[in-house]
Amino acid sequence: MRKTFITMCFCLIGSLTFAQELRSPDSSFSLQFSVNDKGTPTYQLKYKGKSVIKTSKMGLELKDSISFQEGFAIADTKTSTFDETWKPVWGEVSQIRNHYNELAVTLDQKSTQRTIIIRFRLFNDGLGFRYEFPEQKNLNYFIIKEEKTQFALAGDHKTFWLPGDYDTQEYSTVTSDLSEIRGKMKAAVTPNSSQTTFSDTGVQTPLMMKSKDGLYINIHEAALIDYSCLSLELDDKNFILESVLTPDAIGNKGYMQAPTKTPWRTIIVSDKAAGILESKLVLNLNEPTKFKDTSWIKPVKYIGVWWEMITGKSNWAYSDLSSVQLGVTDFSKVTPSGKHAANTAHVKEYIDFASKHGFDAVLVEGWNVGWEDWFGKTKDYVFDFVTPYPDFDVKELHNYAKSKGVKMMMHHETSSSVRNYERHLDTAYKFMVENGYNSVKSGYVGNMIPRGEHHYGQWMNNHYLYAIEKAADYKIMVNAHEAVRPTGMSRTYPNLIGNESARGTEYEAFGGNNADHTTILPFTRLIGGPMDYTPGIFETKISAYNPENNSFVHSTLARQLALYVTMYSPLQMAGDLPETYNKFLDAFQFIKDVAVDWDDTKILEAEPGDYITIARKAKGTENWFIGSSCDENGRVSKINFNYLDPAKKYIATIYSDAKDAHYETNPQAYQIRKGLVTSKTKLSQYCAPGGGYAISVMEVKDSAVLKGLKAIK
Amino acid sequence: MRKTFITMCFCLIGSLTFAQELRSPDSSFSLQFSVNDKGTPTYQLKYKGKSVIKTSKMGLELKDSISFQEGFAIADTKTSTFDETWKPVWGEVSQIRNHYNELAVTLDQKSTQRTIIIRFRLFNDGLGFRYEFPEQKNLNYFIIKEEKTQFALAGDHKTFWLPGDYDTQEYSTVTSDLSEIRGKMKAAVTPNSSQTTFSDTGVQTPLMMKSKDGLYINIHEAALIDYSCLSLELDDKNFILESVLTPDAIGNKGYMQAPTKTPWRTIIVSDKAAGILESKLVLNLNEPTKFKDTSWIKPVKYIGVWWEMITGKSNWAYSDLSSVQLGVTDFSKVTPSGKHAANTAHVKEYIDFASKHGFDAVLVEGWNVGWEDWFGKTKDYVFDFVTPYPDFDVKELHNYAKSKGVKMMMHHETSSSVRNYERHLDTAYKFMVENGYNSVKSGYVGNMIPRGEHHYGQWMNNHYLYAIEKAADYKIMVNAHEAVRPTGMSRTYPNLIGNESARGTEYEAFGGNNADHTTILPFTRLIGGPMDYTPGIFETKISAYNPENNSFVHSTLARQLALYVTMYSPLQMAGDLPETYNKFLDAFQFIKDVAVDWDDTKILEAEPGDYITIARKAKGTENWFIGSSCDENGRVSKINFNYLDPAKKYIATIYSDAKDAHYETNPQAYQIRKGLVTSKTKLSQYCAPGGGYAISVMEVKDSAVLKGLKAIK
């Protein structure tokens, strides 16, 4: 069906180009689409008159078929506008506006008589576009050899990047200019139990950049469904990024059946760093949820039998056997090592602590048989997800937790043996329901089985979604570690309440994270969805738990509190051990008080790699929580409180670094002060190197509490 | 534990070898095992003084580890004898003697401090041996790069071989000397929807050979569990075969965790061709079944809505759509092509026919949505195994079949999308149970998904067994097509009642099988287990069903009857259409009468590639059935009846080729004669080219029936 379309004819010597233009609702962005003289689709993007993306080619290379790269002509264009506000089940804000202008270009490829559609949505915070393949006579099944989407950048931007990899995101972010990536790649690729780099100039998304003239630019994707994960290859002569998809075991990058579509490629742009953090573009490009009932999905604050194993203080495994066989090894006859943390009595201690301090759940890792030889053996039948070790009494702990008003949180480490996981999935989920578990942390550590597949290929992306969808049938919430990084799919599948899929707190025990790590992650990893960062480590020297481990957490204690605000997640762990929290109960109070679900969010200060300060309003309350994190330099944070209700008074409790605090030499030096704040208050707050602060701002309802309190200055 | 062992010391210049000898219970075989001067295990096998296997190396090549090939010394040997008789749940005979002498050699590899055991079992009909890897400190997980088991043959034997292939067995057997394999390989590799040859001199097992001095030799494997399928590579200068395992997607050939073992490598030898067919060695090397209740496992005689689609007369698919999406395409709105065979009314016709003629079940292919684009598209979500097409009424047909005393037989074509199959397996099996199906024909047509895996690798062998074991939980019998060829595992898993896993009757419609095909298969394919050969094609010209198909069945009608006896299977199909059988009800009577389970079997005549004549005693009766199949030359078969009870009289009905019958020009010329036989009867029976005969021999209980009958001559 061909509608009348608006064209702009440019007659150049020997060629004819028709350019389509689209503007964002506020006109700050302008997109130009055209087909060049080879019939290749191209686009360019400007923001407030500045070039963000120069003329960039689009298309896909197919296997055993003429590619979707040349020979196109515009057959039709349709423009439309969309403006709706929707409420997320959980989030940083209680409602989100989805407002864009859309251009859908229908392209006919004459030589093959095939048609594709490229759909552009231009928001006030950026661009999303995708390829669509309508149902048609001459296109049915096709195999993608490589996607050929370019992002021709306007300069040698400062970039916050991870080495491109088909199997891990657990690298420390490198901050450098684009031109320096090649030289820094080798050192950036630190060891991992499963890794597959693909290029000396390959990088992952979300990719965060800052141009020399102050534009903040973020490239990612949205709605990664039935497709291979996007990485980028940099042509570092011309500063052109090009899409690289994750291959399967035989080198193919996508199996498609028309009618179908790719995920959205997203480009968020702002002249303020805060604009990147505020953007809801990736969520907006995902489909609304079809879940009829979401009442069973609730944000979770939890503790867990976990950090003591990460540090090496205790073990996941029950015994010291080097090898076990599920269904064969009789664990009732096996000698326990005495270092198995997940035993009934010890778990009860965690339940007691959680109950006492108002936590929703207790995660327990190492509860099930198989941990003796789960790692690095490419073991197929590695776990069954239902058989506990002899010292973990499932029913007893179910009843005990229930009596204490606390939920047990399940752990499904798959060891990347995914056929095995899928074989047990229904049984495992049923087991959870029968035993009072409604949330699961899943993991995909190690090289993938089926062998040859990668963590981020179409095959595995299909699996991750399969596990999430099946979990929803059982009203189970999922937090998937080592899975593909999120792309806003929590809008469609709100039971996906978390992923790790980046270098998290555990790496503080594996050598440490950079002091500025958490000032970068919200601009990169968090753009697609929340991260189960599991902060709250108060004992930063790992040797305090395990004398053989000299790692230390590159953070002050005060900054650990801030992370509950700056690292948005509906799933928040107080990662450390109860015995440590018991030594710092005054600081721990912040973790107890901080909310995990929000009505509103204000980005007060932000510069990727340097600092982030955020204020959030706790859902259904008038209370606010503020967090600030900075890099290895330390700084003075200057914030205001003008988002508070001018008619109200609030008590602020400020947890901050002491003057002599330092993430390396004096991390536990913190101070707590309480005082009165109003919407007029302004605060200058010192942050130590690798430090920060956290503030709870509680509405005053009874003015009696104001007695003796002074105004915060 | 070291016991005293008997050694024979041979002191050679600079080396020391200890040879172990083992004899079969009747001493006809002698095995010699020794470790050569490199510390490589070797064995040799003699039969009645003739060399069958010359000195052959043994071992395994490992990945990233010192191989199990050299540096061994004998640490211990144990010999034992075993003699037991067991009853199979179904079979060619009612009881089987398992009688062997065993030698278990423990080998220490000094440089690695690792131990392996090679276990030999020598029967009166051949040898089986396997590698075992005991639980031990220095061996835990290891990866096999290649197994290095040699079979050094004593001459340039006549061989009946299939091109070695990791994905299909559907080639026509080639008969040639070993030295001719290389030259004939190219022509032998005919096209298949999934094929992966590996060598110009690679061949499959079971491999059948006949030495120039009249020894029949068969090489295969038994108990293929958690391992990769065995093929063989021929060194055609020295006539040494060496093991080749099927690789996975990344080229590895086996993932092992000690304690574990390989399958048995089997060598059956006889100076009579019949000795090969009579051997129960492969079954005997499999473990007894652990199934407590096998009463639900019953041999099946069935017909099916199948051949009419194979010939092209009708379709599996409901419509002519080129592409469908399960869960999306609304079949109630799709226009049917009018050629969909699996519709309720038509299936009822088959049920009526089955009921009228005493068949147990009706197979229906094409009943479920997805057939429009199931083939050759590498489609992941291709079938769901539970959603019928709009014209196939599951409940109606369940009730109708039940009322007629007939079972419905399920069809699960997986299209080799195996993750998809496993995801649906429980639901699919439950659906079967709920709707009265107790047997399923499964299929694995096309290249494997996960991509890069092969049909016969360890990965897929694990799947086939998973499907069989899960089926047993639901009391379902399995007949798996395109799966790995059987290796006697029906002893352990008696619900595996059939496989195709070779070139079957369907190929008669895809160009034809050689006229001698069925005189070879019992010596090759059937050595590991029964084949669902689906014979009984009476209308041999395919053009009678589909004018566009010029193929013809390379067999006379009479020989088609013989196949119910010569091609042993507990699962037997009358493959042709009811409307055709209705034209030949006199010949069809044999198919109605023939049993599918046996108390005894006699091989009357046999020569691989030339002829086979077998007599079998129907279980629990005094009746016998005889079948004879010959090659393109035709012949006169000469048999006796001395296995009949000398005190009884029998009526024999002989279905044979007419004098002018010919598989190509006059296939339907048959004659039927009835007469009296006793244990003294001798018969000379003409067989046409590509022909044969079938005889039912029914005990006479009421001598009144003898009136007017003459003795068969």
UniProtKB/TrEMBL annotation, chains A, B:
The keyword Signal is annotated on this UniProt entry: yes
The record places domain Glycosyl-hydrolase 97 catalytic at 306-502
MF (Gene Ontology): carbohydrate binding
InterPro entries tied to this protein:
Aldolase_TIM, GH, GH-type_carb-bd, GH97_C, GH97_catalytic, GH97_N, Glycosyl_hydrolase_97
The Glycosyl-hydrolase 97 N-terminal domain covers which part of the protein? 22-288
Provide the Glycosyl-hydrolase 97 C-terminal oligomerisation domain boundaries: 597-697
The UniProt keywords, alphabetically, are:
Calcium, Signal
The record's section on Gene3D superfamilies has: 2.70.98.10, Aldolase class I
One of the Pfam families matching this protein, by short name: GH97_C
Q: Which domain of life is it from?
A: Bacteria
**Needs which cofactor?**
Ca(2+)
Which SUPFAM superfamilies would you find in this protein's record? (Trans)glycosidases (SSF51445)
Calcium among keywords: yes
Stretch forming the signal peptide: 1-19
| Subunit annotation | Monomer.
Q: What is this protein called?
A: Alpha-glucosidase
